[in-house]
Amino acid sequence: MKKIAWAFMGVFAAGGVFAGEPDWSKVTERKIKLFYPGQSGLEWILNKADHSAVPDIVNKKRACSKCHEGDANEVGDKIIKGNPVGNSKTQLEPKPIADRAGWVPASFKMAHDGQNLYVRVEWEQPKGGSFGMDKKNEVKLAMMFDGGISDGGTPAIDLAERAGCWVTCHNDLRSMKEAKDDKKTKYIKGAALDGGKFMDLIQWRSGKGEKPVDGFIADKRVMEGGKGLVKAEGKKDGNKWVVTFTRALAGGGTGDHKIEPGKIYDFGFALHDGGAEARYHYVSLNYQFGLDKAVEGVKYYYNVVKQ
Length: 307
What we know:
Layout: E1 4-6, E2 30-35, H1 42-45, H2 54-58, H3 64-68, H4 72-80, E3 103-112, E4 116-124, E5 139-145, E6 149-150, H5 160-163, E7 199-205, E8 213-217, E9 221-222, E10 229-237, E11 240-248, E12 263-273, E13 282-283, E14 287-291, E15 301-306
Parallel strand pairs: 3-15, 14-15
Antiparallel strand pairs: 1-10, 2-3, 3-4, 4-11, 5-7, 5-12, 6-12, 7-8, 8-9, 10-11, 12-13, 12-14
């Protein structure tokens, strides 16, 4: 029998209902590429002198996934090796990491039962040694999502539907190019909890005894306050990691978005591997999901079907 290494931790929300995971064999799989972004903050992404796609993003309102889903692996490989990218031929990783992969093949599945959202993420262990930054957690996987938008509505967070998690990533964060404060974490410009202008954040951690994170990103990153994360588990089987989240649709805590039918939500994943912290992670491009809502012609959209 193949040896399976387990690393898991779950939490149950007050009043939450946990009915068990869906039959994942019946759920549609979506393959994605998690890639190394280096110091490509939102300001770099939106600077035409650096990034040729700015007119597409700003004027044509085209999502980053539409252009880069096919070559995200190539982008990650260039950045992590310190090769120049973009119009300005910028070196987005000032300290090239020769022994690490520039991207990670991954996939996700999502389902719901009317009470909970279930998310399952798989990826292959990337090559490379440990960064040694996080002494407690060799691996962390996070999911971030906004408050959704109804048909004809206006997004609470500008650019979230096009740039995804990049709305929280800026050039002045710790470990970034213009960092002046080594404690400054992700934030959203003009954030407002009351107005829904924040990102819901959940994270699984591999360390023994480590609790999952149920927080949010507004004017700063807060790693607590949420009550929507019912359960988070992870395991490693051979060279493959599998992490599952169970998230109550109703939310109910500080920084929890309510997930409801009729809306489209912007989301993304971030993988900190090898004891990495801060920007030294692999990230997905922007994706969208909705509950039992088919959207034709949008390849980065995922229809979460009820089981």
